[in-house]
Amino acid sequence: MGNSVSSGLSKESVKEVFEEKLPRSERYLGLENFGNTCYVNATLQALRFCEVFRHKVIAYEADEADEGTAGSRGKEETILSCLSELFRSIEESRRRTGSVAPRKFVQKVKDENELFRGYQHQDAHEFFSYLLNNMAETLRGEAAAREKKERAGGEGEGKGEAAGTTGKGDATADIASRRTFVDDIFRGTLNTETKCLWCENVTTRKEPFYDLSLEIEDNESLAACLGQFSSDETMKDDEKYFCDRCGKKQEAVKRMRIAETPKVLCCHFKRFKYVESLGQMRKLVNRVVYPFDLQLDSSNTTDCCEDEGRYTLVAAVVHMGLHMHHGHYIALIKSSDQWLCFDDDQVTPISEAQVRNTYGGDGEGKGGKPSTEHSYILFYERARRTHGDGDGDGDWDDNEDEDEDEGGATVTDVVTEDV
User: Are 375 and 316 within 8 A, CB to CB?
Assistant: First the structure.
């Protein structure tokens, strides 16, 4: 890979890690790059190792097949159905290592969104946001279609009349408010409080989020970024707030805090910023230290309990390069207690120290050259407390599901399969 995150281990040592330190039930398959699709590969690997999401995506295809509505049975394929097929093919592979070619999924993304066509360098965060929203919309639409079909098949005029009492506007709002498994896993809620500095009236607005986009300064921490995100913002001059009680614009103080924490908390660093003096976008290589275990506190949240605010890092999407419009994306993944680097079709073991090399900054990288590898999106899974001895004290466990070893899987040389 030629970067400071690379393993540096011999082939024999790499094989030893896969055979002795990693669960045999897991699959560590890379993804082939189709010219400029590293942003897809890195994002999908990070999402696949959020196990609760992976299981839901794989179960989706099985559920569709049970209902006779899968793509093979005449229903139009979606990005979600293609992702489910890809994840299932990896899960069912008898090879633990090697690679697959996600050709069908990538082509479906390009068919659905012209932004991702062509061979330009794309933004992993834009793709991540698009993917989650697209899947959630698909699930909501399918749920609404099933309910409509069930209502149409209802017996008796009374049922038909009851079903027809919902107006078109109400139905649209109802669809938009439905929770999907994407929402159950990734969606949190922000509580925005705005206080008028004249009459001191406070208004509260709640809004959902799939990730937190954080401003970054040099030589700070993720905790500092979150603190800045939740800090008081004074609204004055041209940004004055219209106060309903005063009936006019007034100076105000606004503050955002997390009211509902998601199962998987995604933090996006705003590393690409428009610099007015240069008249262009540039990448911020600012050093931002992030923890392997994260604890949200009262400065970031409203009344979330301690259990809901404790997280462990499971994946990071890293941008390599010094410019916005060209570069490369990789994913750093934690499996069991071992970190791995997923660089397209190559998968190599790495250490925690090598993960820390992605903090950023102007320090020297490999060969005395400036570091070009910078964390971009962090994926934290909510930790859960195991059962204690009855006094409320238990150990923290960062896994939602426990792995069980299975026989039959083998470590092989790199072989690429088309999916």
Answer: yes
Per-residue pLDDT, averaged over 178-206, amounts to 93
316-338 CB burial, b ≥16 within 10 A, e <16: bbbbbeeebeebbbbbbbbbeeb
Is residue 385 classed as helix, strand or coil in its secondary structure? Answer: strand
pLDDT recorded at residue 406 = 40
**Burial class of 409 by CB neighbour count within 10 A (0 to 12, 13 to 18, 19+):** middle
H or E stretch covering 332:
strand 328-335
Residue with tokens 């299932």: 88
CA distances from 132 to 56, 128, 162, 300 (A): 13, 6, 34, 24
Q: Give the DSSP letter string of 228-269.
A: HHTS-EEE-GGG-EEETTTTEEE-EEEEEEEEE--SEEEEEE
- Write the burial class of residue 178 (CB in 10 Å: 0-12 exposed, 13-18 middle, 19+ buried): middle
Asked whether 257 and 298 are in contact (CB, 8 A), the reply is no
Q: Which residues contact 174 (CB under 8 A, 6 or more apart)?
A: 144, 166
Structure tokens at 85: 């097929």
Residues 241-257: b if buried by 16+ CB within 10 A, e if exposed: bebeeeeeebebbbebb
The shares of helix, strand and coil residues in the chain, as percent rounded to the nearest 5, are 35, 30, 35
Are the C-beta atoms of residues 10 and 388 closer than 8 Å to each other?
no
The single-letter DSSP state of residue 309 is: G
Q: Which pair of tokens denotes residue 254?
A: 């606004």
Model pLDDT, residue 176 = 61
How many Å apart are CA 36 and CA 32, to the nearest integer?
10
* Residues with active-site annotation: 38, 328
**pLDDT of 407 over the 60 cut:** no
Q: pLDDT of 54-83, one tens digit each?
A: 999 999 987 765 565 544 445 789 999 999
